[in-house]
Design a protein that fits this description.
Number of strands: 7
Radius of gyration: 27 Å
Strand content: 15-25%
Structural class: alpha+beta
Strand order of the largest sheet: 1-2-3-4-5-6-7
Number of helices: 12
Order of helices and strands: HHHHHHEEEEEEEHHHHHH
Helix content: 55-70%
Length: 365
């Protein structure tokens, strides 16, 4: 138990050191990117610092598996150079037993990342998107999902229009049981339209079975209401703007993601990318443990055996390869090429089995 506690403390210290180094690098690189991205006349240095601190957590969170394998390689190279691995073997501890503490620490770090860091990263990412949109175009998201359905907002020379629909098709270009509420430049309501469906075409919404009330005309709006088979309402919205309004799954805390998926599907949208992201977040602790096993499989050897540089390079290449395979599987899962569970869980499971094979070959030949 004393040896396990010692390895656990050493591994945690090395991981935090590597994480701190990457934090400093990311802050410097992202600050340069924010200065390049935004006009210095409209965005001051203090705001640049704020945007940098909001954007850095997302980048660090994405490369946690790579930080984990770098920490593993650093730990076991240090233990090998100080002959602590030799002493451990001489005490009767096998490589697999010596790995128990680092693997448990990796699982705990992965669990902490999903339970605590994920909501923090989601909050900072969402705030960064809002701040960046405000500085770039002066407007935030045009779409919102709620229990009552979905809400859209569009603007134009004649004022703002708020759109509410009970559901839609997969890409949000056709709405059903829809209401349009138009406001003038002064903010006063001008008209209200209810329709069975509305389809987004080039530069306009095409409504079917619509009823229109005018509030800017004299008389009773209900008495003067008109029933129309077809009605066209101008719109500057595009399909890309509607898609971008969803934001990324990473901007939603993992604790709220399941409920958001339900709301998204009730509104008629496809939530496949959000389902893939949720399962990949749940599989993150396994991926962190797999990176520890991969790093240990190539570096748990004494330096006198030689070829240390080759072994370290092999560990890093295999770790990076598994990281990119994980991202590639995520793309395949989001596009529907492979099932969601296979996309999320197969890379870490395959990495663990591969690294265990390397370790067993190292121990038993």
């Amino acid at each position: 138990m004393i040896l396990h506690n010692y390895f656990a403390r050493r591994f945690l210290f090395v991981f935090l050191a590597v994480f701190t180094v990457f934090l400093g690098i990311f802050i410097l690189l992202d600050m340069v990117e924010q200065i390049r991205k935004f006009d210095s006349d409209s965005v001051g240095f203090v705001e640049i610092i704020k945007l940098t601190l909001l954007n850095v957590p997302q980048g660090l969170y994405r490369i946690l598996p790579l930080i984990m394998i770098l920490a593993t390689v650093t730990l076991f190279l240090t233990l090998a150079r100080t002959s602590e691995l030799v002493v451990t073997r001489a005490a009767g501890r096998s490589a697999l037993k010596a790995l128990i503490a680092p693997v448990i620490v990796a699982l705990l770090i992965g669990g902490f990342s999903v339970a605590v860091l994920n909501p923090i990263v989601a909050a900072t990412s969402k705030q960064y998107e809002i701040s960046a949109n405000r500085h770039q175009q002066g407007a935030s998201s045009t779409l919102s999902i709620s229990r009552e359905g979905l809400w859209l907002r569009q603007g134009g020379p004649e004022g703002q229009t708020v759109i509410r629909a009970l559901r839609s098709n997969l890409d949000g270009t056709e709405l059903y049981n829809v209401s349009f509420l138009g406001f003038g430049p002064t903010g006063a309501p001008r008209y209200r339209v209810e329709a069975a469906s509305a389809e987004l075409t080039a530069g306009a919404w095409s409504l079917r079975d619509a009823k229109q009330w005018r509030f800017d005309a004299t008389g009773n709006p209900e008495r003067n209401a008109t029933q129309l088979d077809r009605l066209t309402i101008p719109s500057e919205l595009t399909l890309d703007q509607i898609r971008d309004s969803f934001g990324t799954p990473a901007s939603i805390p993992v604790w709220e993601l399941s409920g958001f998926i339900d709301q998204l599907e009730r509104a008629g949208f496809s939530a496949r990318s959000h389902r893939v992201w949720l399962q990949m977040e749940l599989a993150l602790p396994l991926m962190m443990a797999a990176m520890v096993l991969i790093g240990a499989g190539f570096t748990m050897r004494h330096t006198r055996f030689g070829r240390t540089g080759t072994m370290v390079l092999s560990a890093l290449l295999l770790g990076f390869a598994m990281y990119f395979i994980r991202n590639f599987a995520q793309i395949l899962g989001e596009s529907g090429r492979i099932p969601v569970m296979l996309a999320a869980w197969s890379p870490p499971v395959a990495a663990i089995l591969l690294s265990l094979g390397i370790l067993l070959n190292l121990e038993d030949g």
